[in-house]
Design brief:
single chain, BirA Bifunctional Protein, domain 2, 3 domains, binds adenosine-5'-triphosphate, 503 residues, elongated, Rossmann fold
């Protein structure tokens, strides 16, 4: 399992899926960039979600709200202020909060990068690692090392062994925290200081403190009336959104599972009060079906019903996925009652209601929310698709069995050799296909190696142009998963690719 995780991380880099953010400067912790293939896969996941949510439902519309929002939003939502109480009242939360602070402290004091640099320098200079000796050779190096040394000394002084044990135990405790007893409380406590602050305005005196949104949901709630009126939406109806969210996660590891900048795909479904349980069950069922439709293996998913609920919810469940490090939350389905809209009514003084003609009544709708992390979804797809296969002849191949609909490149077009007009013919095929499908040209290396490269990159189809193609206008199509090959007329290619990547 651990090996699989390592393989996923290195494969993601090698094949242009995921890079550490600003890697040339040694990266930024828990922030990642998507490379040429990653950006395509991510976009395809978004499209798949958007299509099934917005395009296939007449009563769901999509919006794109701003990351920066009026600061009152976060008072209404409970992200600021409201979360001071649990810190004091709840023993479990208090412990976790203390862990937060300690872990943060610990990471800072330990200055892991400095440690690495000292070790590297020691290795390089061997026994000569001694400040005085360097004064004469390179003062800059000496200053640098002395600086690092001071950090380490401070660390040694300020952290006793006991402290270290305490911190380690707390970290362990956090890692194995049962979501039932921990997740929600923990989440609330985290929210207290998880938001990234920023400033809007030119000068220090006149600027306003803002937050980067920690969830996309609030952008939907504050637009409830705008969308309902302009779209003439009737309850029940939904508003969907895909967008960035930011959380200053304290224990941020496990690659793109827990990031400080990530993307959410959320849908808030507004219903009649009293109907919420019916719709909660409905969306639980719809969402798990959506996941199953990608054929990544039904055994990889399970529901986790929350027993302890957040202050705003009257029912909540996670869809968990079997990641390389075990079953963890992939998506949350929450019955949020009228908490958010009521709070925004209170803080804004604006009515956020719906006139129900059937009941002849005005009410604040209840909300069922489905919320999935795009990056977590990406990781679930990537990790369950990466396979190491032993072939009949005993050789092995690495293959990324991505669902064809999500694959970055649908087909690679490969001239058998780089001459005799085959590249030109391949190019012509690309020019015909590229309007409908993301296809890629590759002429480098022997054909077998090109197949393997496309297998590892996750391309479902390889289309090879050979000398016969010049005569019969046909090509060889090779399927990634079965490695089966068949001869197909060039004119049939669009239909064939379409059948593979159909929604
Ligand atoms: P967790 O308990 O794992 O921190 P959460 O319960 O705080 O998650 P929600 O606030 O319900 O998460 O957010 C909805 C979804 O957003 C989650 O199911 C997850 O897929 C995604 N998500 C939340 N935090 C992160 C993060 N730091 N990095 C990547 N995805 C995240």
């Amino acid at each position: 399992q651990e090996d699989l995780f390592k393989n996923v991380v290195s494969h993601a880099k090698e094949y242009g899926y995921i890079f550490a953010s600003s890697e040339i400067y040694d990266g930024l912790s828990a922030v990642y960039d998507y490379g040429q293939n990653g950006a395509e896969l991510k976009k395809n996941i978004k499209d798949y979600w958007w299509k099934s949510m917005v395009q296939l439902h007449q009563n769901i519309v999509g919006i794109d709200s701003a990351i920066l929002m009026h600061p009152k939003t976060w008072k209404a939502s409970g992200h600021v202020d409201a979360f001071t109480d649990p810190l004091i009242d709840n023993k479990d939360s208090k412990k976790r909060y203390r862990a937060d602070v300690l872990v943060e402290d610990y990471a800072e004091k330990l200055n892991i990068k400095a440690l690495k640099e000292i070790t590297k320098a020691k290795k390089r200079f061997g026994e000569a690692f001694n400040e005085e000796e360097f004064v004469t050779t390179n003062p800059r190096v000496v200053g640098y090392l002395a600086d690092r040394k001071r950090i380490l000394e401070r660390l040694a002084k300020s952290l006793t062994d006991e402290d270290l044990d305490d911190v380690k135990a707390l970290i362990e405790e956090l890692e194995i925290a049962d979501p039932d007893t921990g997740s929600r409380n923990w989440t609330e406590v985290r929210q207290f200081n998880l938001m990234f602050g920023t400033k809007m305005g030119a000068s220090a005196e006149t600027s306003t403190d803002l937050y980067l949104r920690p969830e996309t949901a609030q952008g939907i709630f504050v637009n409830f009336a705008n969308v309902q009126k302009t779209g003439r939406m009737k309850i029940p109806f939904g508003i969907a959104q895909i967008g960035k969210a930011f959380r200053n996660e304290i224990v941020a590891r496990q690659f793109i599972f827990r990031m400080r900048e990530f993307e959410q795909m959320e849908m808030q479904f507004f219903v009649r009060p009293g109907d919420e349980m019916k719709w909660y069950e409905h969306w639980k069922e719809q969402r798990i079906k959506w996941h199953y439709s990608l054929n990544l293996g039904q055994e990889n998913y399970r529901f986790h019903d929350h027993e302890k609920l957040a202050h705003y919810a009257n029912a909540a469940a996670d869809i968990e996925f079997d990641f390389p490090f075990g079953f963890k939350e992939l998506e949350g389905i929450h019955s949020r009652t009228d908490f958010d809209l009521k709070a925004h009514e209170e803080f804004s003084g604006k009515k956020l209601r719906f006139f129900d003609p059937e009941l002849n009544e005005n009410y604040v709708p209840y909300v069922i929310e489905t919320s999935i992390g795009l990056d977590r979804m990406f990781l679930s797809v990537l990790s369950s698709s990466l396979k190491e296969e032993t072939l009949e002849d005993g050789s092995t191949r690495t293959v990324l069995k991505l669902p064809a609909i999500l694959a970055p490149t649908k087909a690679a077009i490969l001239p058998l050799v780089k001459k005799d007009g085959l590249p030109e013919m391949a190019q012509k095929i690309i020019d015909d296909l590229k309007w409908d499908f993301k296809v890629q040209y590759d002429e480098k290396d022997a054909i077998g190696r090109r197949y393997r490269r496309q297998d590892a990159a996750g391309t479902p189809l390889c289309i090879t142009v050979d000398h016969d193609s010049l005569e019969d206008n046909s090509v060889t199509v090779r399927y990634r998963d079965t490695m089966e090959q068949k001869r197909v007329a060039i004119s049939e290619l669009p239909k064939l690719i379409n059948a593979e990547v159909d929604f």
